[in-house]
Structures are given as structure tokens and as C-alpha cells.
């Protein structure tokens, strides 16, 4: 009797400790570069809310790809997962069918890194997930650009009169195809409104090239907004900051009036809709790449 009871007990312990592999369990992992600024959080909060509404009842896990930002937040007692930690957490939650959404604006350096990190994690733990679908970054197709440009121009229009320019600050860098995407993005905006200019903090599409164009167009008032998912450090300092080399200061020096709008892209409902569409339509299953060799 005693042996049978302890056998049943042991069997129960074994069964209850097994991960719930039988039933598929869905979840979402949102991956952003990250921000350490509290004033930038409304964008991430709005995105989080939109995903929790769209994927009701499913866990929505977040990760930041920036180690510097995660370390800074950790010092303030705030823990944010890295991509690896978040994948482990998703597995711990019993998620088998995982939708990963990149909050990057273009498929540049940070997005490529995210892909590599996911693939590396999957290779390290084979069979842990049934599916891992990766959603494309914000600006991948002509439709994306059309919808995002329309939403950004409409949002800026609230305070913008005829003849006033809108300058958007993208991130950019020369490591990856991000700079080329931003050049196409700048053209897309210009096609909708010739007084909208896109330049980047890093990379080949600097603000230097935009300044003479503003002068030539006879612009007197120049609205400024980030073309980034949050209005974080770059928006507050490099774009609208008081330092001499901020875009606002350079515009002022030219005798124009800068009008900053510190709103992150994630605060615009139409932008959130693009991210949600990318998550929903993601076909790239990293757990089962289609080509076998
Ligand atoms: Co940066």
C-alpha cells in the first residue's frame, strides 16, 4: 500500500512538473530598442494596451535590445528583459506559439540583431517553441510608408499653418540598410507634402542637407517631431534640446522659429495599427524555416 501511494505521488510530481506541451499556448513578445526616460513611456504604454486588447488573455512580454538602457534601468530598480531573458520567460509561461514584434522603425542594424538573437536562442533550445513568427519593423512596404506618413502629417497638422515646414528626426546609421530606407521614407513624405523633411541623427541623411533647403523654401516656422517610436533622449536633446547643436538651436540660428512636438510614433493610433498588422500577418516562422537546406 505504502509503495503504491508513494508511486502515485511520485508519478503526480513528475507529471505536474512537465511543461504543458500538449495544448498550444499563444503569446506575444514585443521588442524595442528601449528607453530610460519616463517621459517616453506613454508610447510604449499605448502599444502595450493595444496588444493586450488585440491578444486578449495572452501574455504580452517586453524586451529591450539595448544593454546600456537595461543596465541604467536596473540601477533604478526597474527590470526589463533582454531578448534572451524574454524568450526564456515566454517558455516558462508555457507559450508554444509565439508572435514576436519588432518596434524598430526600419529593418536596419537593430532589427538584424534581433533576428540573430532569436535564431541563436532557438538553436540553443530546440523544440521549445512550436512557432516563432517575427513581425516586420514599422516601415517595410509602400503601404506602411503611406499609412505612417499620412498619420504623422495629420498629427502635426494640428498646430501647423500653411507655409510652415515639418522636420522629422529619424535615427539612421550606416551599419545596415536603414539609411537607404530612410531616404525612401523622406521621398514618401515629400510626395505627400513638399514642406516635410526627414533627416537622421546618425548615418548618411544628416540634418546639414536639410538646413539649406529650409532656407531656400523661405520657411519661417519649422515644426519638429521624432520619427522614432518614442520621444526619448534623441527627441528631447538632439532635436529639441537647448544645446547649440540641437536641430532646434540650428533652426533658431537661421532666424526661423522651431516648434517641437515631442510625440513618439507609438502614440499615434494609425502607427499602432501598422505594427498590429505586421504581427498578425507575420509569415516568417523562425522555429520552422521553410527551406530545409
Ligand atoms: Co541613438
Note down, in words, how this protein is organized.
The chain has 293 residues and is of the alpha/beta class. The protein has two domains: 26-138 and 269-285, Rossmann fold; 142-264, Rossmann fold (3-Layer(aba) Sandwich), CATH 3.40.50.1400. It contains eleven helices and eight strands. The protein has helices spanning 2-17, 41-54, 67-75, 83-92, 109-124, 142-157, 178-192, 210-216, 233-239, 247-253, 269-281, and strands at residues 26-32, 60-64, 97-102, 131-135, 165-170, 196-200, 221-226, 257-260. A four-stranded parallel beta sheet has the order 2-1-3-4, sandwiched between helices. A four-stranded parallel beta sheet has the order 6-5-7-8. The longest helix has 16 residues, at 2-17. It is elongated and about 65 Å long.
Question: Which secondary structure elements does this structure contain, and how are they paired or packed?
Answer:
Blueprint (H helix, E strand, L loop, with lengths): L1 H16 L8 E7 L8 H14 L5 E5 L2 H9 L7 H10 L4 E6 L6 H16 L6 E5 L6 H16 L7 E6 L7 H15 L3 E5 L9 H7 L4 E6 L6 H7 L7 H7 L3 E4 L8 H13 L12
Parallel strand pairs: 1-2, 1-3, 3-4, 5-6, 5-7, 7-8
Helix pairs in contact: 6-7, 6-11
The structure holds cobalt (II) ion (CO).
Descriptive terms for the model:
293 residues; 11 helices; 8 strands; four-stranded parallel beta sheet; Rossmann fold; binds cobalt (II) ion; 2 domains; alpha/beta
Overview in brief:
With 293 residues, the chain is α/β, with parallel strands linked by helices. 44% of the residues lie in helices and 15% in strands. Strands 2-1-3-4 form a four-stranded parallel β-sheet, with helices on both faces. The protein has a four-stranded parallel β-sheet with strand order 6-5-7-8.
